[in-house]
Design a protein that fits this description.
Distance between the termini: 26 Å
CATH topology of the largest domain: Dihydrodipicolinate Reductase, domain 2
Structural class: alpha/beta
Strand content: 15-25%
Strand order of the largest sheet: 13-12-11-7-10-9-8-14
Number of domains: 2
CATH architecture of the largest domain: 2-Layer Sandwich
Number of strands: 14
CATH superfamily of the largest domain: Dihydrodipicolinate Reductase, domain 2
CATH class of the largest domain: Alpha Beta
Helix content: 25-40%
Length: 406
Amino acid sequence: MTNLKIGIVGLGARGTGLLKLIARMKDVDINYLCDLYADRVENAQNIVKKVKGYAPSGTNNYKDIIEDKNIDAILILSSWESHTKIALEAMANNIYVGLEVGGAYDIQECWDLVDAYEKYKTPCMMLENCCYGKYELMVLNMVKKGLFGTVVHCSGGYQHDLRKEIGFGKENRHYRLQNYLTRNCENYPTHELGPIAKILNINRGNKMNSLVSISSKAKGMSDYIKQYKSDDEELINAEFAQGDIVTTVIKCENGETIVLTLDTTLPRHYSRGFTVRGTLAMYQEEANILFLDKKHQIYDFYSRPLWNNGKRYARKYAHPIWKQYKKEGIKRGHGGMDYLVLRAFFESVHAKTDTPIDVYDTASWMCITALSEKSIKEEKVVEIPDFTKGKWKNREKSPQGKYTID
């Protein structure tokens, strides 16, 4: 098997973390490293040289990658606002696109990605690692086996105290700061929505029809700045647009509801809040509880004995992807799921097939950000576009392989 030739755009904390995993993949050659900051490029070159024995070409212009006809794939790990522009140019040059998670700034971005795929037939995969999480896959496997009965409702959230990362965005050269100053939306929906969409067969027999979003006031960041950056003349008087808690409710074609929560600017522990409710079972990530009808009814008022029982059921109902992964040896990176999503992408490039998370998934998940912003601003329910243009009713099966999750 010939090694893949790839380029990586964006070498901040996330990009560097994924680079360290990719550098150890023997079937992947890293030809280009790109970032606007020279020190990040140099650091990344040193990482690759230490592992692979060579330093990739460094550049501050992503077009250097796209214009190289020998490149098989590009990973776009840069700021949210740059994702779509780079992806569209790569797809037009028949380069597979691995797109780091992030929401769209407007709906047209999402349509542009779909149109580019349908014109050039070049796959674009959102690298949503949470779709390959151990417990997300366990629940998916159980749902497919019928053990949850009929799934009625799902919820989840990006619930992560990011005040330091946002507040020191200038010093850390991080794009979140500007977003929180100027936008109010569900800005990071895909960690929770990705796994839920696969469970609910979104774009393959089901679709999301509409959403409504509501935002709390914004106080968390301004209070944080007063406590920890009172000497920052620019931020001390800034008014942050992003509400502290944004709640989004989605209604699906087949009758299910989804609730997403963005909670990143108040004190809290980390959680994705992944919850699935069916007629025969419930899973809740917060305490890692699997509640089975008829088996666990005695714990309806006192659930503590069930806390972390998901660990036991994960052995029994582990998804085939995780069973194989455990045999091969679980790699570092958010509990192992970073490696899996990267391999899912690279295996598709090797096979020259579409990706397990395809462009229709990518567009459907990204659009939630732009639509939530509109819903909050206009205080109304908004329609979610059907990016499959009706094909969701009877789509062909996704390419079957080691990392298939449909």
